[in-house]
Amino acid sequence: MSTVSVKNIDKVYQGKTHVLKDLSLAIESGEFLVLLGPSGCGKTTLLNCIAGLLDIEGGRIEIAGKDVTNKDPSDREIAMVFQSYALYPTKTVYGNMAFCLRMKKKPKSFIDKKVQETAELLQISELLHRKPATLSGGQRQRAAIGRALVRDAAVCLFDEPLSNLDAKLRTEMRIELKKLHNKLKSTFIYVTHDQVEAMTLATRIAVMDGGQFSQISTPDELYEHPANMFVARFIGSPAMNFVAGTLRLDGAKSILVTQEGLEFDVSHYPFVVRPSNGHQVVLGLRPESFHRPTGKGATYQLTNGILEPLGATVLYYCQLGGTDVVVSFNPSDLQGVKTDQALEVSIDLDALSIFDAATELRL
Amino acid sequence: MAKVKGTSFVHRHAASLAVVPVMLIALVFYFGSAVWSMVMSMTASKIFPDMTFVGMKQYIRLFSDALWALSLSNLGWYALGSLGSLVLGFFLAVMLESNLAGERFFKTVFLYPMAVSLIITGLVWQWLFNPSMGLQQFFRDLGLQDFDFNLVGKKETVMWALVIASIWQSTGFYMVLSSAGIKGIDSEVWAASRIDGISKLRMYIEVIIPMMKFTFLTSFVLLSIGAVKAYDIIVAMTNGGPGGHSELPSYYIVDMYVNRQNIGMGAAGSTILLALVLGFILLFAAINLLSKKKE
Amino acid sequence: MKIDPSIRSQMILPNRVPSKNPVSKTVFYLLLSVFAVLFAMPLYVMIVTSLKSMDEIRMGHIFALPITPSFDAWDMAWNKAASGFDNAGLKSGFWNSVIILIPSLAMSVAFSSVCGYALACWNVKMGNFLLMALLVCAFIPFQVIMYPLIKMSVAVKLYNTSFGVSVVHTVLALPILTMIFKNYFASIPEELIKASRVDGGRFWGTFVYVVLPLSPNIMIVVAIMQITGIWNDFLVGLTFGNVKAYPMTVNLNNITQTQTGVRVYNVYMAAAMLTAIPPLLIYFFSGKMFIRGITAGALKG
């Protein structure tokens, strides 16, 4: 049992800046939950509140079923990995990992065994006698994770742990972290502003914006059914294309008409809320939902295109009607295509999203 | 043609030419003077420079002067006592860095003596130590009839008086240096220590103090050189008295040059002082080198 | 939602959360307050003593507030006390200090900033050697070079003049100030200097149009250091100064060391206050700049 539950918490800085507003979140045992959002959205603040590094002004926090709202960080059965690694600079890697166990008055043999085991798990056994200043970024990262893991904490908190690493190392460490989570089966709460990191690591993602949750869901669900335009914009790279339009309801048929007069048949769209005729909407199209014409269904013209080959895919910057869109193709799809010609495509109508133009919420 | 060439020379070497004044000043006024002192210390100079070479004779005379020997031992005690300002400064910094309200107010109070002339420091402490009207009288009026705080008047305690005044004067400085050292530790490390359940005391003992050892060593060197240079405070507080028991080498040398007009011995004393300071600079350089290597 | 930077810094500084241990906090406040009182005490005693009459002082209540506060001692110290040559109080010493201060401030800042700029931003032959030499010079005690300097100043007829004192102050300040300027200018992005050179700026043009406009802060820091340092100097003023125009600290010392008659502590303290007020004002109003000055002077070497 290592669930984490956050109930209606509020965080106010200096009595005036309301950073977290009435947040609630239940995290299951063994989950890898990622808090995702742009900088300043309150995700690190929320993590610090769960850790107990910050006091909250309202609500309660439970870890493993126990109320820890007023407990010190060290009494919350948590471990934490920091963005700057925060290793104790005067201690060796061994000293860093052993420090907290020593403070808990564990026997020396136990400490030694525990540290060696953890070091082996993270492949840092040869680094145990080195000081942090002599380690590379990736090695420090491992040492910091090691320090967190030796404690066998039920819940592990990560505050943007990979953001100080270069791109290649970041990818490697991402995979390591995922393996580690599979092996340990403990609860991970992980803060990042990088949507790729979130999508690849998480079992569930909580997208935050302005101190509130925009959507809490699995990565697939977030990608396929974003609950609002903020999430739609934030998840996926390149980002979702938006085309403004109006809904025309005609008996069983629903037609979305863009400002330029393009028509999309959305009769099979699973509306969450039944919209009215003439509803102002925004159509969301993933770059991946465009294909070369298959012969059935409507086709559309892409104009004024510019190609950006990326190897595995080709990005096609162009216009649909009068709106700028980005489309992602297989290189083979575009063989023989000249950029000065219009390109005919069909659109996967099952993969689109429709948002209310005024509230930006999914319809 | 020659003129054009000249201008371009000035332009091309403007940067090198710009450092010439400072370089000349360093060479002539500092190194020249130091060499001059060393040379004079081996001559028979008295009131006027006299280039008769006498070897180490001036040094032998210097070290057989009981007052010089006394001034050297005074210097040792003074430097040792002044360490108090480093210790106190560090503790004040630790308390102030615990995020207390009024940090700025306290810092302002602890640091203002730095802004005041040492002549004034000496004068005000001489007044505070005045046996019949100063602190001693205050405590006697409180009922402590035998309270003895006439530190300046007695040869056994006069160095204590100087040390107290010097601690009052320079504690703020070492507080600021220590504060900078403590602030140097990443805030996330503090957060990590809270997660790990490590007390502040433990953090200071095992992490922060070891981390600041170069700050402390540097402070120690600065403190020692400060003690070697100390002059004004003695003039204002004790004039070397009673009976030379608060005399320091720097005071002795000025006295030798100005009042006793003995260039040879003054130069010998200066050379010793220079050697002392050079020793500290070497120590300082070694520390710097070591700290860079560690990083 | 945008969060202003002051609050952001708090968000990532969890150690800045008030300590949860009220006992240690109370103990800290208590200790700090005791030391604050001890440190403030000499200033307090100076002020109250300067406002008392000698009769009141002889009663021996050093901490008592003056029964009948009067500025007679201040008047005496400023206008009449036996301060040296003309025995007309400290006021002439005040102006002598100003006359010494202004040229030495101008000269030391001018020479050291240019030299620091050359060392930091240009390729100077033997630049590192010069820096090493300056580091050594900064530590050499004045007493070591005092006598030769006297001889030299006699030779160029600067001995016993106020300008001579200014020159000696300049010489003494150059090593440390040059290092401070060098360290500061070295933090200016190299691209700026390169851009200026590409645009045709030479040594002086780059200094005047690129470097100086970036340096008001360091100039203020150095000025504060120099003003307080020179104002508080005693030994240079005493050994090189004109006996008819000693700086204020020498006058103050003369007043207190006059052996004739009774020791008038109220006048001494008033004189000490008068001498201390200019640097104290600078200190209280400059705050962080003063701290930056003393730490830069100490550690950046």
Low-confidence region ranges of chain B: 1-6
Question: What is the residue-averaged pLDDT of chain A?
Answer: 89
Which residues of chain A form runs of ≥5 with pLDDT under 50?
Answer: none
Distance between the termini of chain A: 37 Å
Helix percent band of chain B? over 70%
SSE pattern of chain B, N- to C-terminal: HHHHHHHHHHHHHHH
The average pLDDT score of chain B comes to 87
| Count of helix runs of chain A | 8
**Assembly level:** heterotrimer
| Portion in strands of chain A | 25-35%
Shape of chain B: globular
For the sheet with most strands of chain B, the description reads: none
Please give the number of β-strands of chain A.
20
Tell me the strand order in the biggest sheet of chain A.
6-7-8-3-9-10
Rg over C-alpha atoms of chain B, rounded to the nearest angstrom? 25 Å
What is the number of E strands of chain B?
0
Fourth-level CATH superfamily of the largest domain in chain B = MetI-like
Approximate helicity band of chain A: 10-25%
Fourth-level CATH superfamily of the largest domain in chain A = P-loop containing nucleotide triphosphate hydrolases
Can you tell me the CATH class of the largest domain in chain A? Alpha Beta
Task: Please provide a written account of the structure.
The complex is a heterotrimer of chains A (about 375), B (about 300) and C (about 300). Chain A starts with a strand and ends in a 7-residue tail after the last strand. Chain A has helices spanning about 45-50, 95-105, 110-120, 135-150, 165-185, 195-200, 220-225, 230-235, and strands spanning about 5-15, 15-25, 30-35, 60-65, 65, 80, 155-160, 185-190, 205-210, 210-215, 240-250, 255-260, 265, 280-285, 290, 300-310, 315-320, 325-330, 345, 355. Chain A is elongated, with a radius of gyration of 25 Å. Chain A folds into 2 domains: about 5-235, P-loop containing nucleotide triphosphate hydrolases (Rossmann fold, 3-Layer(aba) Sandwich); about 240-355, no CATH class. Chain A is an alpha+beta fold. In chain B, helix 7 (about 120-130) packs across helix 9. The relative contact order of chain B is 0.14. Chain C has 2 domains: about 5-75, no CATH class; about 90-300, MetI-like fold (Orthogonal Bundle). In chain C, helix 5 (about 90-120) runs parallel beside helix 8 (about 160-185). Chain C is globular, with a radius of gyration of 24 Å. Chains B and C meet through helix 2, helix 3, helix 5, helix 6 and helix 7 of B and helix 2, helix 5, helix 6, helix 7 and helix 8 of C.
